Amino acid sequence: MASPGSAPHEEPFTATAELASDAADNGNVRIVFRAQGGPLPAIWSLAFGDPRPMPMQEDGPKRWKLEVRLPKDACASWAAIPHIRAASPSRSDRLRILVSTQARVDLGTKMDDQFIVNNATAPSLYRLIGTDSQRRLTPNIGLIPTPEGDAPHNDGLCAPAPTGDEQHIRGHRLVKIGDDEPEALLLDGEVLRRTDAELADTGWARSYLHNRGAAARLTDHARPDRFARIMAPLLRNAGCTPQVIVGTSAAAPTALALALRMESPQVILLSPAFLDERIRRQLITDAAARGIRIDVRAGSEETGGGDPNRSIRLQAETFTTAVREAGGNAAFTQFSGGHDLPAWHFAQLRALREAAKQQQYRK
Predict the structure, then answer these.
(1) What digits encode the pLDDT tens for the residues 3-44?
(2) Partners of 24 in the beta sheet?
(3) Which of 87, 165, 269, 308 could join 114 via S-S bond, C-beta 3.0 to 4.6 A?
(4) Residue 86: DSSP 8-state
């Protein structure tokens, strides 16, 4: 019995993700999240195309449950939050987000601090983007146990990135690793450089362009043509001559704009997020006129909850079709999973391997 005046014992919060079915319709499987403790827990997973946590349903006293479906070969990350309100934006937060990129970053950091998972194996994107790649990170998210989903080597994401030939360009780091030719330029370099051991097997020398910071990333990629106009000559002067440029999410339009400025023959766009319709139309026109090869890939779960205006998969397909109708060279591929680093990891590896084979064929 608790002594008079002592604080009541609080049950520790725990959360698990379990495979509930080996197979289902359309190749999907059922995943069950369970939690114990917590006032109002939620599940965070970018696999479902939305950074907002999904509230769990009560399943008994201080017990919670949430069921989802994913492709059986999807690669997806997750974490639980004990109290959804503690990681949700207030009214003042929502107002600040509209006018401040730093407020958006702060909100992501606030949510990241709440993450709990039974077996953390990797750091979230909130920890990775904009962080010095030489800083060792603590894992705070896990992988959803789909039966055929390959597990990326997450240990590298926590460890300091491998070193290479490094130059500083207008607040960015450009780090080259590998032989001189052929060269792939990868944006979001502070994240991807930590996975270099696997990217090295694709057959490319890798040049990683680091962001100046998490908030600066959002600012830079909001105006991709301006970024490309400034950075392209500086990258050339630094000896960067990529045959392919890779960009993901908000960095994808920037990758295309940069490839056009640097006259790279190919670009890989993973889950491209076009934030401005005028910029999107101009990139379609310029890409078709230049004849650059555009490899567009998006996830099966990037549907925007059924809202076509928020569906990155649909927007990626529409962009590909528009480039082709304008006379350009573009192809679309769907990968299993969502707007999530594990899914992008394997999609990128496949895309770079295919691009390397095309490069050898052209020789």
Answers:
(1) 444 445 467 899 999 999 876 667 899 999 999 999 999 999
(2) none
(3) 87
(4) G
Contact in structure between 72 and 27 (CB atoms under 8 Å): yes
How many contiguous H segments (helices) and E segments (strands) does the chain have? 12, 16
Quote the CA–CA distance of 126 and 30 in Å, as a whole number: 27
Contact (Cβ atoms closer than 8 angstroms) between residue 186 and residue 235: no
In this predicted structure, which of 10-19, 150-159, 260-269, 335-344 has the lowest mean pLDDT? 150-159
> Is the preceding omega at residue 182 within 30 degrees of 0, hence cis?
yes
How many CB atoms lie under 10 A from the CB of residue 233?
11
Mean pLDDT (whole number) for 299-306:
88
Distance CA 173, CA 171 (A): 7
Quick check: helix, strand or coil at residue 115?
coil
Tell me which residue of 257, 247, 235 sits closest to 176, measured CA to CA: 235
Q: Could you give the 3-state DSSP secondary structure of residue 1?
A: coil
Q: What does the alpha-carbon distance between residue 235 and residue 216 come to, in Å, rounded to a whole number? A: 18
- What count of Cα atoms within 13 Å lies in the side-chain half-sphere of residue 45? 32
- Do strands 244-248 and 266-270 pair parallel, antiparallel, or not at all (unpaired)? parallel
User: Tokens representing 332?
Assistant: 């679309």
CA–CA distance, 79 with 182 (Å, rounded to integer): 38
Q: 233: pLDDT confidence band, cut at 50, 70 and 90?
A: very high
Closest CA to 338 of 111, 109, 3, 73: 73
Pull the structure tokens for residue 149.
């989903």
For residue 120 the two structure tokens come to 């953390």
- What integer pLDDT is reported at residue 360 of this predicted model? 64
Q: Which of 113, 240, 260, 145 is nearest to 189 (CA)?
A: 240
